[in-house]
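ribonucleoside-diphosphate reductase, pasting as requested.
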Amino acid sequence: MAQVRLPRQRTSETVSVSVGGYGGRVTVAREEGRVREVFLTAGGHGSTVAGLAEAVGTAISLGLARGARLEDYRAALVLLGLKDDMLN
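Structure tokens follow.
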């Protein structure tokens, strides 16, 4: 599937999260009612946790741009040990 090109400006929302004792933020950008991009920030600038969060957000965004479903990522996170109530 071809990559979906997003407009330069799009609607997004940011929420604060805490997973495994690490605080961070998740920003979700939507276009046409679907989640199209995910930005994750955690840890201090330049830290391993910050780099990992950014890489995971980028991987999710690339998958979404190529047709992956957000529900598949959610299921994968549950398999990795996150409880479903942590993902609401």
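Note for the archive: The mean pLDDT is 83.
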